[in-house]
Design brief:
elongated, two-stranded antiparallel ribbon, mainly alpha, 11% strand
């Protein structure tokens, strides 16, 4: 169920991005971009699509990192719980 839900979210974001690129392709305005080492002219829809997708990838990396950290903490706590439960189940030596 989670997999289907994530696929649906991905499809919604992808369709939104395609809609924005299609809507922006009508505008043919050229923009001069002056970076530190390069200069170039880009069309406005291309520049907006690149900004959108790069922001999406940065957010995806940040969320993936948070997910991995949470999974590692969960594994550590589960191991700790199993160790404590094994200590409880052992008989007390007197």
């Amino acid at each position: 169920m989670k997999f289907v839900k994530s696929i649906l979210y991905f499809m919604a974001i992808l369709s939104l991005a395609m809609f924005l690129v299609t809507l922006g392709s009508v505008n043919g305005q050229q923009i001069h971009v002056n970076l530190l080492i390069a200069q170039d002219d880009f069309s406005l829809p291309t520049l907006l699509a690149a900004a959108f997708f790069s922001g999406f990838l940065v957010a995806l990396c940040a969320l993936g990192f948070g997910y991995v950290v949470a999974k590692l903490k969960l594994r550590k706590l589960q191991n700790h719980i199993s160790r404590l439960s094994s200590q409880i189940s052992q008989p007390v030596k007197e």
